[in-house]
């Protein structure tokens, strides 16, 4: 039956964006024609029929499943609960579809199991900073924090609103923020979904000493701790495990793992003026790795601002450490780098989802604080 002959319910919304690859059905008296619609394709919504929107493409009406279309809400990330790799992929695509003039999605590499490693640029400024999360699999709430942060910043940019006194549009017109929300997607999915999420389930169960409980897992799917992979003090990292497993194995050499190598290469392609690697737990901020003189003074001053905002304590300077992303960044780039542990200490398990709201309130302005640093 032609669309023109079916009973539809009018809607007030006249424009939207298809954010998932889908098909538009064009009913006809003799046959049904289906046309592929790529993500970001702008559509005009005419009305609603059953579980479909009636849309216009080239002046012709067709049907598209409501589930495959997202209406503009200026709030696209649901940060509550376990935030999966599939949700991340869909949300980044959707955010870019709604805010194409000041966002960009980039694939910076692949995980061991072939999942995309995403970077998301927010802003138009020539200066740049970077924020990453989920180096460690069980610390996946850091992805929730990052995704809600970029969602709220994007809303404020479009509406020309302020967050914690910061003029978001002005800030992001001067300094762009690159977010890498999930450095370790294979590991995160192991924690959230178990061995079935891996390409080789029997191998990860073996690495986990025969256990199917991956709650405590920190490493990537090969059993290498990604935050012990960077070339700063790698050869002398303390507390290193002797073989692959859930945690603290640094690998056979620095940057042996594709996830760490991707973030390393991505960082080297840019000139970030500062960076944050989000971790959990401990309510503390690591900011020091062998800095001296004016670099020490500068970095401590910024760390103190972050401490004042979050309420997290600064870790006192000490010798040792190494292998972490922040350690390599401050050593290699001579610029401020911070590891922020977002929650009270919870032990070898993910941060309870009930903690999210208070954590988010403390961390929401962090990217804007750093973007406004010189």
The largest sheet, given as strand count, sense and whether it forms a barrel, is: 8 strands, mixed
Uncertain runs: 13-19
Count of strand segments:
18
Structure classification: alpha+beta
Mean of all residue-level pLDDT scores = 90
Order of helices and strands: EEEEEEEEHEEEHEEHEHHHEEHEHEHH
Radius of gyration: 23 Å
Strand order of the largest sheet: 9-10-14-11-15-18-16-17
Share in β-strands: 15-25%
Shape: globular
Fraction of residues in helix = 25-40%
What does it look like?
The chain has 374 residues and is an alpha+beta fold. The protein has an eight-stranded mixed beta sheet with strand order 9-10-14-11-15-18-16-17, with helices on both faces. Strands 1, 2, 5, 6, 7 and 8 form a six-stranded antiparallel beta sheet that branches. A two-stranded antiparallel sheet has the order 3-4. A hairpin with a 5-residue loop joins strand 9 and strand 10. About 2% of the residues have low confidence. Helix 2 packs across helix 9. The N and C termini lie far apart (63 Å). It is globular. The protein has ten helices and 18 strands.
């Amino acid at each position: 039956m032609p669309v023109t002959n079916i009973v539809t319910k009018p809607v007030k919304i006249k424009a939207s964006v298809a954010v998932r690859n889908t098909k538009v059905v064009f009913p006809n008296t003799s046959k049904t024609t289906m046309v592929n619609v790529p993500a970001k394709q702008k559509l005009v919504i005419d009305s609603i029929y059953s579980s479909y929107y009636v849309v216009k493409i080239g002046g012709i009406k067709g049907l598209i499943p409501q589930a495959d279309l997202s209406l503009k809400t200026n709030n696209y990330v649901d940060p509550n609960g376990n935030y999966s790799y599939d949700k991340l992929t869909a949300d980044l695509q959707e955010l870019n579809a709604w805010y194409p003039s000041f966002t960009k999605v980039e694939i910076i590499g692949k995980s061991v199991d072939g999942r995309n490693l995403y970077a998301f640029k927010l802003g138009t400024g020539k200066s740049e900073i970077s924020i990453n999360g989920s180096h460690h699999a069980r610390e996946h709430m850091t992805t929730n924090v990052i995704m809600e942060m970029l969602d709220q910043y994007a809303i404020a940019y479009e509406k020309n609103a302020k967050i914690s006194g910061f003029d978001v549009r002005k800030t992001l017109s001067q300094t762009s923020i690159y977010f890498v929300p999930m450095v370790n997607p294979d590991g995160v999915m192991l924690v959230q979904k178990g061995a079935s999420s891996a390409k080789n389930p029997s191998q990860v169960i073996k690495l986990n000493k025969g256990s199917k409980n991956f709650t405590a897992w920190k490493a990537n799917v090969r059993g290498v701790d990604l935050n012990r992979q960077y070339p700063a003090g790698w050869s002398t990292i303390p507390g290193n495990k002797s073989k692959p497993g859930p945690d603290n194995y640094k690998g056979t050499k620095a940057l042996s793992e594709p996830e760490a190598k991707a973030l390393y290469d991505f960082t080297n392609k840019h000139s970030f003026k500062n960076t944050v690697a989000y971790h959990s737990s401990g309510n503390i901020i690591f900011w020091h790795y062998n800095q001296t003189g004016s670099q020490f003074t500068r970095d401590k001053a910024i760390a103190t601002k972050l401490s004042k905002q979050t309420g997290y304590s600064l870790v006192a300077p000490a010798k040792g450490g190494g292998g972490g992303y922040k350690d390599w960044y401050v050593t290699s780039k001579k610029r401020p780098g911070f590891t922020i542990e977002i929650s009270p200490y919870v032990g070898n398990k993910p941060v309870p989802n009930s903690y999210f709201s208070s954590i988010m309130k403390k961390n929401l302005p962090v990217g804007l604080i750093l973007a406004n640093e010189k």
